[in-house]
Amino acid sequence: MLIIGLLTIAVGVLMPIMTNNPFGMTFRYVFAVGAALTLIARFMEPSAPAGTPVRIKRLMRLESWSSLLFCVAAFFAFYSAPVIRDWLAFTLAGAAIQIYSSIALNIAASKSAKK
Questions:
Q1: N or C: fewer beta carbons within 10 Å in the chain?
Q2: How far apart are CA 64 and CA 52, in angstroms?
Q3: CA 34, CA 91: separation in Å to the nearest integer?
Q4: Neighbouring C-alpha atoms within 13 Å toward the C-beta of 76
Q5: CA dist., res. 32 & res. 89, Å (int)
Q6: pTM of the predicted model, to two decimals?
Q7: Residue 66's closest CA among 107, 109, 96?
Q8: How far apart are CA 66 and CA 5, in angstroms?
Q9: Minimal CA–CA distance to 56: which of 99, 104, 98, 115?
């Protein structure tokens, strides 16, 4: 469900860029569905088992924050309709956190596996 949500967010972001009418309503709904899917998927993920290093637990929590930022971006897509910069800024912030946490989580997991 998380992958589908992230792909839906990507489609929702690309729709105003690829079409002639950047302020159409369709991209907002597609983006909002993707944000909701990622938030639901993040909250349904199992928590880290006992004995997991604190760094890994924090990075897993940080991934949830990226989904929250996507939901805030979906809110601004509807609230400030003619202004693209608000929802795009929150989307970029969520994407940056998502990229950082996924890379750092893999590095931290491989380091803890070596120990």
A1: C
A2: 18
A3: 12
A4: 15
A5: 15
A6: 0.83
A7: 96
A8: 12
A9: 104
The tokens for 100 are 């950082």
Q: pLDDT tens digit string along 29-51?
A: 888 999 999 999 988 887 777 77
Q: Token match 């994407």: residue?
A: 95
Other C-beta atoms closer than 10 Å to the C-beta of 20 total 6
> SS3 string of the chain?
CHHHHHHHHHHHHHHHHHCCCCCCCHHHHHHHHHHHHHHHHHHHCCCCCCCCCHHHHHHHHHHHHHHHHHHHHHHHHHHCCCCHHHHHHHHHHHHHHHHHHHHHHHHHHHHHHHC
Nearest to 90 by CA among 78, 104, 102: 78
Residue 68 has pLDDT above 90, yes or no: yes
